Amino acid sequence: QVQLVESGGGLVQPGGSLRLSCAASGSIFSINFMAWYRQAPGKQRELVALITNEGSTNYADFVKGRFTISRGNARNSVYLQMNSLKPEDTAVYYCKLVNPSGSSYWGQGTQVTVSS
Question: How far apart are CA 115 and CA 25, in angstroms?
Fold first, then answer.
C-alpha cells in the first residue's frame, strides 16, 4: 500500500506565494510520475502539473509561469511552488502518484484559499 500526505496549504492574499509538499511512503518500488491536481467547489478535478521519473515536467496553461513542480532528493516527494496566486487558484490540491503498472494513489488533499 502507498500513502501520500500533502501539506503546506492555507490562506494567502492575491499575489502571494505558497509551497505545497507531498510525501509518499509505503510499498513504493518505482514511480512513473507524480502530479498535483486541484478541485474547486462545483468543478471537476483538474491537472495542475506533473513530473516524470526522468524529471520531465508538464503544466496546465493556467499555471504556466507561476507554478513550479519539483521532486525531493529521495524522489518519493514532490513539491509545488505557487507564486502570483489568484483567487481562482482557490481549491483543494491533491497529490497523485502513478507507478509503471498504472496503479494510481491519491493524497487526502490540502486546502488553498486565495483571498484578501
Answer: 33
